[in-house]
Design a protein that fits this description.
The protein is an alpha+beta fold and 214 residues long. Helix content is 33%, strand content 29%.
Length: 214
């Protein structure tokens, strides 16, 4: 009798082990399916795979020194929580480093405390100088060779903002607004000839961003 009971116990335990393995296998399959669905959603969204935004700006009427000075002043003005009380997210910026060509900073969302990393690079315009390749008579075409000379007035800025949370994919346009708000808050967006270039492909939810809220 005891032998039969022991045999039944072992059989029951093997059944439990088999069921546990089956459940584990099922969970693994479900996890794989979920990951595949998420990957498909990311690829089909048309946005960067990670919540981020890259933008290019042109300032034909300002030097890079002037542009950088205004951005540094705006980051300083929006450092800390004080401006958060006015609504939106025009606050909680923190300067990390700056040089003659670069600024790095962070922005922390007031409500959830998510941190985004910002990097802006400043590139002076180059003056285009044309040299005649040869001198021709008036009825002949003259070929010109273009060369890049010394920096002239005007500045290009390449800026990116990226969520530090590893799993972030959609951000409601927050990373775009991190950069855009600095441009509008500093008044740089009103400078003569100002131009901004980006798209949903390189800037998460750019086309639906609400920078009054974020």
């Amino acid at each position: 009798m005891d032998h039969e009971i022991e045999r039944m116990r072992k059989t029951f335990n093997r059944l439990l082990d088999a069921l546990s393995l089956r459940k584990a296998t099922s969970r693994v399959k479900m996890l794989r399916l979920t990951l595949l669905m998420l990957a498909g959603a990311v690829l089909c969204s048309g946005y960067p795979y990670h919540a981020s935004c890259c933008v290019k700006w042109k300032f034909p009427s300002l030097t890079c020194e002037a542009v950088q000075g205004k951005l540094l002043a705006q980051i300083k003005a929006w450092t800390g929580h004080k401006n958060c009380k006015k609504g939106g997210e025009k606050c909680n910026y923190e300067l990390k480093s700056n040089s003659s060509t670069d600024i790095t900073a962070t922005h922390t969302t007031p409500k959830h405390g998510f941190v985004d990393f910002l990097h802006m690079k400043f590139i002076p315009f180059k003056k285009e100088i044309f040299f005649p390749e040869y001198y021709a008579s008036p009825d002949q075409h003259i070929t010109f060779v273009k060369a890049l000379g010394a920096p002239s007035t005007g500045c290009k800025v390449h800026g990116c903002s990226r969520s530090e949370v590893w799993y972030a994919h959609l951000d409601f346009g927050t990373n775009y607004c991190n950069l855009h708000n600095l441009m509008t808050g500093s008044g740089l967006s009103n400078s003569t000839g100002f131009a901004e270039m980006t798209s949903d492909r390189i800037c998460t939810q750019y086309s639906s961003a609400n920078c009054d809220k974020y």
